[in-house]
Amino acid sequence: MANIEELFSESKVSVPKRTEVEVPEGLQDNLLVTTVSGFIDSIYNWARSNSVWPLTYGTSCCAIEMMSVGMSRFDISRFGSEVFRATPRQADLIITAGTITRKMAPALVRLYQQLPEPKYVIAMGACTITGGMFHDSYSVVQGVDRIIPVDVYVPGCPPRPEGLLHGLFTLQRKIRKEKLLARGAISKYHDSQVRDVDEKTGLIIK
Amino acid sequence: MAELPIKPGDEKLAAYFARKEATAAGKDPDEAEKAALAKFGITTGAPEPVAAEAAPAEASTEDSAEAELVEEVPPPPPKTPEAKEFFDAAKFNVEELAKDAAGTLMYQVQLADLVQICKDLKSQRKFNVLNFMTAVEYKEAYKNILRLESNKHLEAVVLKVDLPKNNPTMPSLTDIYPSANWQEREAFDMIGLSFEGHPNLSRILNPEEWEGYPLRKDYIGPLDELNQPITYALSS
């Protein structure tokens, strides 16, 4: 998200300050640790970014494009993400393909919390980014980043399969820049961004 | 030995075997085939090879079968619809509305008569399907709309009933049409109609403890962090 913050700072728009990713106290100036971890990071992240397994999660028409990406014409398996898992415990990534309603929001939050770290979210389509054409609906969550943290936004209604592939590349670039030592801080940041939605009333829990 | 019933296609088999036996015995296969076909009442003019004869023979049998089918089912004679007959004969206080675009009969019925009308239509006139039930809010009243269909007569009728705004309650039709169960739950969920005698009148689309009825004209949805507008302040 650093890039987005820079963009906003150039246009002089203030955004809420996000949690800084921190290295543990004792290890910050340790030359050995930083050198070795930098070496390991590059290999580890390269391997990890080429096998991002998505969760089978689609709530409306964007899911059709997501299926199309999985089929032979666009073939997301060229980039190591063809293994759509049926359970969040085996997945790294949620592609929120479709409108998220207030009734679906608790389920999405629960799925996100069941993903093991490191976990990523691609917000696919106008509905999950801003609410889209349901911008004044009583029942639609106006942007999935209000309930879970989002890594990559893929706009479109729905986006073409190439768009989703581009979103995946963007996510891969992001993964390759991550630091192993910052894993704990990223995890804390993820937990801090999750908002609980009440299953019975469909409202956010204070 | 009892004779087996003759099936379509038997004559081709008979002709085939007759030709085979005749060729094996050194006789003329065409004559043997002709004789075999004659037993089935088929006379062929010039002797032709079986393969060439098969295709047109098949086509002709199909054509004749089709022709018979067409003759068996004549076009149905024009007839007054069952629903119209029913409402003309019965002494219910109904008002016939204009037909809809598909030509379906529509009736405005009284709330008190609704259950009896549905019972009679189902038992006497075989309107055995509740196609859908929906509800609309008008200025003066809520309107519940039912479309009944008959599989026997292949026709439909639409019933409309007014429910007062202060107490939109009507008797449940689940005893007559079990498919009304979920339709009534939806009408309860979205418009707020109440159905007396429904086995499980709870919300079906919205969350269980949702407040208000979203398709009412005066409905205002909830406002919380899931849908309140975000404004980015420009920093100078």
Produce a short descriptive summary.
The complex is a heterodimer of chains A (206) and B (236). Chain A is mainly α and 206 residues long. In chain A, 38% of the residues lie in helices and 6% in strands.
Number of strands of chain B: 7
CATH architecture of chain A: 3-Layer(aba) Sandwich
Radius of gyration of chain A: 18 Å
- Share in helix of chain A: 25-40%
β-strand percent of chain B reads: 15-25%
Q: Major beta sheet of chain B, specifics?
A: 5 strands, mixed
Shape of chain A: globular
CATH fold title of the domain at 82-166 in chain B: Beta Polymerase, domain 2
Helix-strand pattern of chain A:
HHHEHEHEHH
CATH homologous superfamily annotation of the domain at 82-166 in chain B: NADH:ubiquinone oxidoreductase Nqo5 subunit
Could you give a short account of the major beta sheet of chain A? Answer: 3 strands, parallel
Please mark out the parts of chain B with pLDDT under 50 across 5 or more consecutive residues, or reply none: none
Give the strand content of chain A: 5-15%
CATH domain class of chain A:
Alpha Beta
Residue ranges of chain A: pLDDT <50 for 5 or more in a row?
Answer: none
Biggest chain pair contact, residues each?
A-B, 26 and 20 residues
Helix content of chain B: 25-40%
End-to-end separation of chain A in angstroms reads: 26 Å
Mean pLDDT across all amino acids of chain A: 86
Average pLDDT over all residues of chain B: 84
Shape of chain B: elongated
Provide an overview of this structure.
The complex is a heterodimer of chains A (206) and B (236). With 206 residues, chain A is mainly alpha-helical. Chain A has one domain (31-193): Rossmann fold (3-Layer(aba) Sandwich). In chain A, 38% of the residues lie in helices and 6% in strands. Chain A has helices at residues 2-10, 31-49, 62-70, 105-114, 126-130, 161-176, 183-193, and strands at residues 93-97, 120-124, 152-154. Chain A has a three-stranded parallel sheet. In chain A, helix 3 (62-70) crosses helix 6. Chain B is α/β, with parallel strands linked by helices and 236 residues long. Among the domains of chain B are: 10-65, no CATH class; 82-166, 2-Layer Sandwich (Beta Polymerase, domain 2), CATH 3.30.460.80. Chain B has helices spanning 10-25, 29-39, 50-72, 82-89, 114-125, 180-190, and strands spanning 95-97, 105-109, 129-137, 141-150, 155-164, 169-171, 194-196. Chain B has a five-stranded mixed sheet. Chain B has a two-stranded parallel sheet with strand order 6-7. The longest helix of chain B is centred in the first third of the chain and has 23 residues, at 50-72. Chain B is elongated. Chain A binds chain B through residues 8, 12-15, 102-103, 105, 131, 137-142, 146-147, 195, 197-204, and chain B through 205-211, 214, 219, 221-222, 224-227, 232-236.
